[in-house]
Inverse folding.
């Protein structure tokens, strides 16, 4: 009877697969065997052994459940395609993204361990192990972090654009977690994992949560919109990702390639990262350390690492702040002189941008204005708004605010250096002063221009040659009642001191700043004012100060022309120089010079002559410049010319034109002096005829 019952159960298992059996109640199976002679009992007895063997095998294979196929929970397959194929500009960043995820898992494990959470094998090493297998064409990234349970793997890997790290941060904050406990968490958007499908035909994930009682899991997908999930007792604590590389991406199975990517993007993650057993990230993130604990040797090594330079830093700015933005910055000022690359505004230069130790952009040009492109270093901020791929900054008020914070901090640092280390700063200014001047020319904010101008240095008429002064120091020495800061542009000190424009202010013992570079006067012209004091060229001061030109015949004396003769000469000069001089007037500011030419804005006029005058006809050029000739009626040449205009009109005309041309050359308003030489030769010929 017992044998018959066993036979019945065996036959039941066999017939469950047949349509006839499904139509017969299971309770009548044994009756079917007894009453239906058409059934071959011996046949079913022979198959019984096979059936019981099948049942036994099914029970043994339950250690690894059958894969469960699921759909991704994002809206469409297109979203996965965008993430995997279009979101990132470079395929290599998938390594950065997966290492960032592994680092987050380790940080979560570390935090839970410190807070007393019961975890399995809590003393295991917290590291990231990467295996590049060139023969198998795979890349394996493994971490000993917190791992995932079934619900977490479905939520984190089965849903695109859901960040498990972000959810973890929000959970900690809601529980009042310490800020330091979340500062090392990198993930933000929940899309980094899917970057693996840029290079993978298939991705396998083996994971096991570190919480007690967790089971191992195996997640697998080819990135086409579905994934398989099953239990797997072979999965170890933490997470292991196996990337089966596409045929055109097998370079990512090469050890040297992966090491190079890690050193560029993930060199400063908080845990050791090894490739085929060799630790790669050996350089410390100095910007996160206490500035007092970092040695000069460390700064030298780190500077060379991030800048690809062979010199050493001249100055080091190492600071951190949480107000108004969270910023950790380490900025270097090179010791070497700038090269052609740094001089070009089109050069791709900028600070390296990190977010929680992970490189986002090697040269983030938006963090500093162009004129500070010579600065090298690192900025790490949790407040930086990034685009979804974490490759680009999203332009906005926060980025402008961060740029302002960094720029102001650099300006304050350089100003402190100029006061406390004057010799070192003077050497820096010699090499990099041109960038500061560029900052004034390119800035749109007057406050920023004045902050930059505090760093400028110029020679002064009251100081020995070679000794320079700041604009602020000039202001401290201004005479009572003086409202303008005077400057004079000239090729050299000798020419500046012998200039006709400097003569009047020298007589009054007024300090004048000397500008020897062609662009200096444009810089001061763009600056306009400093501490509510106008910056005025001595040429403009001569043109505007008409009070000094008022005199009487008694002041002129016998050595010069009287007022009637002066008016007569002015009328004749106006006619002779018609089309060139817009106006002729007298000046009493000159002593050793016969005349000068003034225009409304001498700096702008000189810039026009240097850059555009060649494309403008001479007649039109004089109409644009509107030069004003100012004569000194006491000078012997002027008094002699007054006589010559009646005695020898031809010679007087040549003399008048030569004086005007000389004045234009002295003012820097003639770009071609060859016509002046021709006129001078003619004048000398007539003069020699009198000998």
């Amino acid at each position: 009877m017992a044998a018959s019952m066993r036979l019945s159960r065996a036959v039941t298992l066999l017939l469950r697969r047949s349509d006839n059996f499904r139509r017969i109640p299971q309770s009548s199976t044994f009756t079917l065997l007894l009453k239906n002679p058409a059934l071959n009992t011996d046949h079913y007895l022979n198959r019984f052994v096979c059936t019981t063997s099948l049942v036994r095998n099914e029970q043994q294979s339950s250690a690894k459940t059958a894969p469960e196929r699921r759909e991704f929970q994002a809206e469409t397959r297109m979203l996965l395609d965008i993430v995997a194929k279009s979101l990132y500009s470079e395929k290599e960043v998938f390594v950065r993204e997966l290492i960032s995820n592994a680092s987050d898992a380790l940080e979560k494990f570390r935090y839970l361990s410190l807070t007393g959470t019961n975890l399995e094998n809590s003393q295991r090493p917290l590291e990231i192990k990467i295996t590049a297998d060139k023969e198998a064409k795979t890349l394996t990234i493994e971490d000993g972090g917190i791992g995932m349970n079934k619900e977490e793997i479905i939520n984190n890997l089965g849903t695109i654009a859901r960040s498990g790290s972000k959810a973890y941060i929000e959970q900690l904050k809601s529980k009042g977690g310490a800020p330091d406990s979340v500062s090392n968490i990198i993930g933000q958007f929940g899309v980094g994992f899917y970057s693996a499908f840029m290079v993978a035909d298939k991705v396998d994930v083996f994971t096991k949560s570190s919480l007690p009682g967790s089971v191992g899991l195996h997640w697998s997908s080819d990135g086409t919109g579905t994934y398989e999930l099953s239990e797997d007792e072979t999965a170890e604590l933490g997470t292991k990702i196996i990337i089966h590389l596409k045929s055109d991406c097998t370079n990512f199975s090469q050890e040297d390639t992966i090491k190079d990517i890690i050193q560029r993007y993930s060199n400063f993650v908080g845990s050791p990262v090894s490739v085929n057993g060799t630790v790669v990230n050996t350089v410390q993130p100095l910007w996160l350390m206490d500035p007092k604990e970092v040695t000069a040797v460390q700064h030298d090594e780190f500077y060379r690492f991030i800048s690809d330079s062979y010199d050493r830093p001249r100055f080091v700015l190492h600071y951190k702040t949480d107000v108004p933005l969270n910023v950790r910055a380490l900025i270097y000022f090179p010791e070497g002189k700038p090269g052609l690359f740094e001089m070009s505004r089109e050069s791709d230069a900028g600070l390296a941008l990190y977010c929680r130790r992970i490189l986002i952009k090697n040269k983030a040009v938006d963090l500093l204005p162009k004129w500070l492109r010579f600065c090298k270093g690192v900025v790490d901020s949790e407040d930086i708004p990034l685009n979804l791929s974490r490759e680009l900054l999203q332009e906005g008020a926060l980025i402008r605010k961060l740029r302002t914070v960094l720029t102001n901090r650099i300006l304050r640092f350089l100003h402190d250096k100029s006061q406390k280390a004057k010799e070192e700063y003077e050497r820096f200014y010699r090499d990099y002063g041109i960038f500061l001047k560029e900052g004034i020319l390119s800035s749109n904010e007057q406050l920023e221009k004045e902050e930059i101008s505090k760093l400028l240095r110029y020679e002064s008429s009251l100081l020995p040659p070679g000794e320079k002064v700041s604009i602020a120091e000039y202001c401290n020495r201004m005479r009572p009642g003086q409202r303008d800061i005077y400057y004079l542009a000239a090729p050299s000190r000798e020419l500046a001191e012998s200039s006709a424009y400097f003569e009047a202010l020298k007589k009054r013992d007024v300090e004048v700043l000397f500008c020897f570079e062609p662009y200096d006067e444009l810089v001061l012209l763009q600056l306009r004012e400093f501490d509510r004091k106008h910056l005025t060229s001595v040429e403009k001061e001569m043109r505007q100060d008409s009070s000094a030109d008022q005199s009487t015949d008694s002041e002129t004396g016998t050595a010069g022309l009287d007022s009637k003769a002066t008016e007569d000469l002015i009328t004749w000069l106006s006619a002779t120089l018609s089309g060139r001089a817009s106006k002729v007037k007298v000046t009493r500011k000159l002593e050793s010079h016969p005349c000068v030419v003034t225009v409304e804005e001498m700096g702008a006029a000189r810039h026009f002559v240097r850059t555009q005058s060649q494309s403008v006809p001479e007649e039109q050029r004089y109409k644009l410049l509107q030069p004003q000739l100012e004569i000194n009626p006491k000078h012997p040449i002027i008094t002699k010319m007054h006589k010559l205009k009646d005695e020898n009109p031809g010679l007087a005309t040549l003399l008048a034109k030569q004086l005007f041309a000389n004045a234009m050359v002295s003012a820097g308003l003639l770009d071609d002096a060859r016509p002046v030489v021709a006129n001078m030769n003619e004048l000398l010929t007539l003069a020699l005829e009198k000998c």
